[in-house]
Each structure stands twice: as structure tokens, then as C-alpha cells.
Write a structure and sequence with these properties.
This protein has five helices and nine strands. By secondary structure, it is of the alpha+beta class. The chain folds into two domains: 30 residues; 170 residues, 3-Layer(aba) Sandwich (Glutaredoxin). The strands form two sheets. Strands 2-1-5-4-3-7-8 form a seven-stranded mixed sheet, with helices on one face. It has a two-stranded antiparallel sheet with strand order 6-9. The radius of gyration is 19 Å and the shape is globular.
């Protein structure tokens, strides 16, 4: 009986180590300011595959990990739309990526993404991180979580869009816009990192 009990403990320990290892893989340090961001090839809501390389004339990229279901992501939707409309024409398109596993969060399925994008008239690409390989490579942990890249795909800013997720009218600092303005002026952004405020990314359960 004691041997069986010890075997059960050993089995639990092995499973625990597996889960821990998987968690570390999913939640590694990811990118830091100054790093070169990896490209990706993910399915857009129109069925086409999109990568950074598709934006031939980009002066930079606003990569935003976001989703349908997080209240913070929803609060930021209109601001993200406005950001794209303002800066895509200047060479800084928004590229939105849904990192959530749809089995864990059904409201973030590909079909629901299509419905949400249509309802909100998203003017930017909205991609599914199917397999959840891109968000850990970047180091995203929240929705929304923003990575501003320059033309060479070097990370110039990581964090939140601005300093007030609840109330757009009360925003006093627009981190991403200020960082883009610095790049446009040939300067390094003054603020390169802020804490991303939002919901935790919903990873596959092991």
C-alpha cells in the first residue's frame, strides 16, 4: 500500500514538473526594448495569412495582443480603431492578434473574431494566434498588450496604449502616440515601457 502511495506522489510530482515546464515555455521573458521582433504568419479574419513582411512600406508596426472578451480590450477597441486610422496612413499600421485559446475562452473563437470585427468595422488586420506560439515569443501577458516596432522590427515601446483604460476622455498620456512621434522625429521614445493593464491571456490547459 505504501509503495502505491509513493508511486502516486511521484506521478503527481512528474505531472507538476510538466505543467511548470509548459508554463515557463508559455510565459518566458519574451522581447525587450531594442530586440528584433520575430515575424509571424497568422490567419486574418478574411481567411488570408498576414505577416509583418506584407506591409511593404511600413515605417513601423503597432502589434497589439487583444481579444473579444476582455473588458479592458473592449474598452480600448474604439481607441485602437482611431489609432490605426490616424497612423496607418503615416506608415504605422495596427496589427491586432488574438492570443487566447478558443477552447478555454469560447468567445474568442475565430468565428467570434470575424463577427466582432464586422460589427465594429475593424480597419486593421485581426489575427488568431492559433497554436499560441506568437504571444509567448513576444512575451505578451495581457489583453491588450502593445509592442511598437520600428521599420527594422526593433522593439521601441512595450506596454499600454495610454494611462487610462476606463475613460478615454480622462487620458493625459498617450504612450504609443508619443512613441510614434519620437520615431517620426528620428528620436528614441522617452517612455519605452509601461505596465500593460488588462486580462491575463487564456492559455491551453495541461
Amino acid at each position: 500500500m505504501k509503495k502505491v502511495f509513493n508511486l502516486a506522489i511521484l506521478l503527481v510530482a512528474i505531472i507538476g514538473l510538466f505543467i511548470a515546464a509548459a508554463t515557463i515555455t508559455k510565459n518566458g521573458e519574451g522581447l525587450k526594448v531594442g530586440d528584433t521582433a520575430p515575424d509571424f504568419a497568422l490567419k486574418n479574419i478574411d481567411g488570408k495569412t498576414v505577416s509583418l513582411a506584407d506591409y511593404k512600406n511600413a515605417k513601423g508596426y503597432v502589434v497589439i495582443f487583444t481579444c473579444n472578451t476582455c473588458p479592458y480590450a473592449v474598452m480600448y477597441e474604439q481607441r485602437i480603431i482611431e489609432l490605426h486610422n490616424k497612423y496607418a496612413v503615416k506608415g504605422y499600421p495596427v496589427i491586432a492578434i488574438n492570443p487566447n485559446d478558443p477552447i478555454v475562452k469560447a468567445g474568442d473563437s475565430y468565428e467570434k473574431m470575424q463577427q466582432r470585427a464586422t460589427a465594429k468595422k475593424f480597419p486593421f488586420a485581426y489575427l488568431l494566434d492559433d497554436g499560441q506560439e506568437v504571444y509567448p515569443a513576444y512575451g505578451a501577458t495581457r489583453t491588450p498588450h502593445i509592442y511598437l516596432l520600428d521599420a527594422d522590427k526593433k522593439v521601441q515601446y512595450i506596454g499600454a496604449l495610454d494611462n487610462n483604460p476606463q475613460d478615454a476622455s480622462a487620458v493625459t498620456t498617450k504612450y504609443v502616440e508619443e512613441a510614434i512621434a519620437a520615431l517620426e522625429a528620428g528620436k528614441t521614445p522617452e517612455t519605452t515601457f509601461t505596465k500593460a493593464i488588462g486580462c491575463s491571456i487564456k492559455a491551453k490547459r495541461f
